[in-house]
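User: Okay, second chain of the day. Same drill as before: sequence in, structure tokens out.
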Amino acid sequence: MRIETNGAVLCADTFGDPAHPAVLLIMGAAGSMDRWEEPFCERLAAAGRYVIRYDHRDTGGSTTYPPGKPGYTSDDLFADPLAILDRLGVERAHLVGLSMGGAIAQVLAIEHPQRVLSLTLMSTSPVGTGGEELPPMSDELRAAFGEPPAEPDWSDREAAIAFMLEGERPWAGPRGIDDAAMRALLGRVYDRSTSVPSGNNHFILEGSETTRERLAQVAVPALVIHGTDDPMFALAHGEALARALRAKLLVIDGLGHEFPPSAWDEVLPALIAHTAP
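Assistant: Same drill. Structure tokens below.
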């Protein structure tokens, strides 16, 4: 499904009965909807949810800009989920956001509370400026950012997927990566993407800011899910977010900044219970 909004075309996908409670899945920076894998979405839909996933701008089948030259701001990324809901005729939805997607979900709950039934925030941090100081990313992840490897020839599918696979490793927890499963996932990402490196435009966006104190305005039920070994946002980020939102906190042992199938059996029951009518 292709949806026109705010100067862009967004690619979206749905699972389940539109009459069921809607759950909108919002992926993190540089992440297409493929990372909400189909078997996960199908299991959630089988529990009686209308599951919606979509590609951010600069990912998957959505409008893509040259690397380093995004033709939009972070405000557009915040507005895009509302356009998805409008196009599908969904008045209110349960929002599930991972990493940057969690930030988007928080902003929507602050700015558009009438559209939000609940929040599930995964591997993310309290949005906004101010508030308590939280731990920085791990030294290992910082080193990976500081010395990035040379990019491949992106027209070479196998070289590109191998490069992307190695790029996943610094984010993983001690459980490690299932190379075969991840390679298959990255193959789907590559095949659907106009320009994989354009996803990095998300890291250089400008836009409006909010203050962390506004999280106190959020009145909908919230669930925070965080790994013990997240190298981007240490567990203290999830704990601070849970306090700010008076939320339930589900801690997953050994999980990094990722959402592998090995975590689904812990996440799905909590998510299904949290989004129950």
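The mean pLDDT is 96.

User: Thanks, on to the next one.
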